[in-house]
Amino acid sequence: MRLYPLLIVLISLTGCGGPRAVIGPPLASGAAPKSIESIYVATTRNRADNPSLPYSSGRSMALNFAKFDIGIPRNHISGRIETSSRLPNPDRHFAAQAYRPIDGRPQFIAQLNAALAQRAPEDREIVIFIHGYNNNIADSVFRNAQIAHDYSIRAVSLHYAWSSGGSLPLYVFDRDSAIFGRAGLAETIEIAAQTKARRVLLIGHSMGAYVVMEALRDLAMTGRRKTLERIGGVVLAAPDIDVDVFQSQVRDIRTLPKPFTIVVSRRDRALGFSRRLTGGHPRVGSGSDIAMLQQNEIAVIDASDTDGGTHNVFASSQTLMDVVNNNELMRSLLRDDHGPAKQTVLADGASVIEGAASLVIFLPARILGGMAQAATTR
């Protein structure tokens, strides 16, 4: 009986309570949206005969594919998703300007390649976003579009939508769906690896980070190392993963894709409640064991003091957007390029970089070792 009130508080903290977003169809409008973000979707959700939510929470054994063109409204404020629980008005709400199912894996790969060919050579990358707990298809596709727009991502956006129940009391259902969804994400990564993309990047949020780690583990344990080698970077934001489970996943994967970055916050109250729901075990996203992450060659961005350090700070923080978009240190870290030494300010024992905008960046051990060696030879 204690689970339900805890979930109510959890949802209120993560901003997923109240009326749910719907995809469309959009209302007629005389004004064009601010911009349109094309989001390719691979999903283990079942198709639904419902234009407002064309994919349900039902689990599909086979991947379904689609493309959404999402209109960003003219009144959009960075970090927010302006939605409606009724028919969205494209002047004021995120809305699907177009939705097209795609039949089969070969056609999906062909469309991804066509989208890549339309970009400059340096932008021919695929970024796969994996959503978190309590998302319906509109919640997660809109979040992907918001991230692509606000972070000025020029790569092809590919969204993996696992079958979250999108309902307040379904935390356990979502944990089971996350496990169910790992094979689908592994296949999605495999599909992206078979395109002409220069590299494939993964961004997993909250429980979606658990799906990411399980998919990487699945690829490793089934011998699909060539697919793993096509991954050019992983970012886990507020990962809702038990610390012990995470270490077990890392052992099974053996060699993590690089660079590998985790965004943590000690002020993430949602993960605090998740910890209580799961028996008091610490979550990776709470930053409880940063030294362990460093030793596993993982860079850690501590956003505890950045714009409230909330569960969605990775997507909602204008400060973080400004730093990632404009700061050469952040760009080099996320691209596994150590950058000029003059840009790094090392704290005690060469363990921390204190960056702009109240972020603290903990470097992975391999970079620290290289920097220490370089310092002794100068």
Instruction: Report the β-strand fraction as a percent range.
Output: 15-25%
What number is the mean pLDDT?
84
- End-to-end distance, in Å? 63 Å
For this structure, the CATH topology is Rossmann fold
Shape: globular
Enumerate the spans where pLDDT stays under 50 for 5 or more consecutive residues: 1-18, 337-357, 367-378
Under CATH at level 1, the class stands as Alpha Beta
Task: Just name the CATH architecture.
Answer: 3-Layer(aba) Sandwich
Largest sheet: 11 strands, mixed
H/E series:
HEEEHEHEHHEHHEHEHHEHHHEEH
**Largest beta sheet: what is the strand line-up?**
3-2-1-5-4-6-7-8-9-11-10
Q: Give the number of domains.
A: 1
**CATH H-tier superfamily:** Alpha/Beta hydrolase fold, catalytic domain
Class by SSE composition: alpha/beta
How many DSSP-defined strands? Answer: 11
Number of helical segments with 4 or more residues:
14
Radius of gyration: 20 Å
Helix content: 25-40%
Verbal overview:
The structure is a single chain. The chain is α/β, with parallel strands linked by helices and 378 residues long. The protein has a single domain (3-377), classed as 3-Layer(aba) Sandwich (Rossmann fold), CATH 3.40.50.1820. Helix content is 37%, strand content 21%. It is built from 14 helices and 11 strands. The protein has helices at 3-14, 105-117, 137-150, 171-180, 182-193, 207-221, 225-229, 243-253, 269-277, 290-295, 313-316, 318-326, 328-334, 365-377, and strands at 35-47, 55-72, 95-102, 126-130, 156-161, 200-205, 231-237, 260-264, 299-302, 352-354, 360-362. The protein has an 11-stranded mixed sheet with strand order 3-2-1-5-4-6-7-8-9-11-10, sandwiched between helices. Helix 8 links the parallel strand 7 and strand 8 (260-264). It starts with a helix and ends with a helix. Mean pLDDT is 84; it is low at 1-18, 337-357 and 367-378.
